[in-house]
Design goal:
Elements (H helix, E strand, L loop, with lengths): L2 H10 L2 H12 L4 H4 L5 H14 L8 H12 L4 E7 L9 E2 L2 H7 L4 E5 L8 H10 L5 E6 L16 H7 L4 E5 L13 E4 L3 E5 L5 H5 L3 E7 L1 H18 E3 L11
Helix pairs in contact: 1-4, 1-5, 2-5, 6-7
Length: about 250
């Protein structure tokens, strides 16, 4: 195969995609099966690039090339806007609704932080599906007061309901470290220690489809791992683990 085909493949694939494909190739999966880990919007283009470079299952160079792409991309950083605009007016970047697809593509880890969690969110079922796989480390951080209901957040699931919905995940709520409640207002999603989305959007249908919301999608392993590590460091001081109530288990 030509060097140009390898170069184009290296420029096109993300490090996470290369890692996942190499892993599945090694397990003996077909190209079609391995491509299920790639987002649907990119799947056909990725197939074309792989086939053009001859980086397909059964090729002796396939896994080494994919691992080389993974390593080369380990230091690469890309940043794109993530919009919610009524009428889908955004003509650059991605939409907040794409977060569901990104979460469902997770193979190793998903970390989420949110203030307001609603069952109308596309992430409500997506996070449940991922957490039930048993192979993905899912951690969710949420605001305890926002989950207690009241006139403003009357339809917000309780922390226990979220814990029951996300069976297999580790769900944390804010505490009162100095006798006063702290508010969890950080809104982010990190996937596979590689992709980090920081956004103004809550986990709700309106924030994903009808509001004006803006976030940034950053592909950077070092930054994603740094944010995850800082949340882990804050757990012992600012959060407590939620134990789901049996009465709500499976609700949602």
């Amino acid at each position: 195969m030509s060097e140009d085909a390898f170069r184009r493949l290296g420029e096109f694939l993300t490090g996470t995609e290369a890692d996942q494909l190499a892993e599945l190739y090694g397990e003996g999966l077909t190209l079609t099966q391995a491509l299920q880990t790639v987002s649907a919007s990119r799947r056909q283009d990725v197939r074309s690039q792989l086939e053009a470079a001859g980086v397909v299952p059964g090729s002796p160079v396939a896994v080494p090339v994919l691992r080389a792409v993974q390593g080369a991309n380990a230091r690469r950083t890309s940043i794109d806007p993530v919009w919610t605009l009524p009428g889908y007016l955004a003509d650059y970047g991605t939409l907040t609704t794409s977060l569901k697809e990104l979460v469902l593509s997770a193979r190793h880890a998903v970390t989420c932080s949110t203030f307001n969690f609603q069952k109308s969110s596309a992430l409500w079922e997506a996070l449940r599906e991922v957490s039930l796989r048993g192979t993905v480390d899912v951690r969710v951080y949420m605001d305890a007061n926002a989950a207690r209901g009241g006139p403003v957040w009357a339809n917000t699931p309780t922390c226990e309901e979220v814990g029951a919905q996300l069976a297999g995940a580790k769900v944390f709520r804010t505490t009162e470290p100095d006798g006063k409640p702290v508010r969890n207002h950080a809104k982010l999603v990190a996937v596979d220690h590689q992709f980090l989305i920081v956004t103004s959007a809550n986990f709700s249908k309106s924030a994903e489809e009808r509001n004006i919301e803006l976030g940034l999608r950053v592909q950077s392993r070092s930054l994603a791992e740094l944010v995850e590590r800082q949340l882990l460091d804050a757990e012992a001081v600012l959060y407590e683990r939620v134990q789901p109530s049996r009465s709500t288990e499976g609700d949602g």
